[in-house]
Amino acid sequence: MKKDYEIRLATQVRGKWWRVDYVNKEGRMEFETVEALDVQEAISLTNTILRRKYHAREKKVRK
Q1: How far is CA 56 from the centre of its chain?
Q2: Is 49 a residue whose pLDDT tops 70?
Q3: How far apart, in whole angstroms, are the C-alpha atoms of residue 33 and residue 45?
Q4: CA 23 → CA 13, 16, 37, 49, 55, distances in Å?
Q5: Cβ-defined contacts of 6-9 (< 8 Å, 24+)
Q6: Residue 20 forms beta bridges with which residues?
Q7: Does the pLDDT value for residue 26 go beyond 70?
Q8: At residue 13, does pLDDT exceed 80?
Q9: pLDDT mean across residues, the chain
Q10: How many CA atoms lie within 13 A of 62 on its CB side?
Q11: How would DSSP label each residue in 18-37?
Q12: Separation in Å, CA 24 to CA 29, 31, 46, 49
């Protein structure tokens, strides 16, 4: 089973804002911008966002 995404890089943009780059399962590079105190929190928040995003798509496809 192939993962829906793979996080590649987390970069601090300004203050508490982080840009987290990831590759989706189609192979396209995309990014999410999150507010976090450090890189671990930014990655954790992005994982939560992406898990919900791709899980919701799977539910729609099944119905």
Answers
A1: 14
A2: yes
A3: 10
A4: 19, 23, 23, 14, 16
A5: 7/43, 7/46, 7/47
A6: 10, 32
A7: yes
A8: yes
A9: 89
A10: 6
A11: EEEEEEETTS-EEEEEEE-S
A12: 7, 10, 13, 13
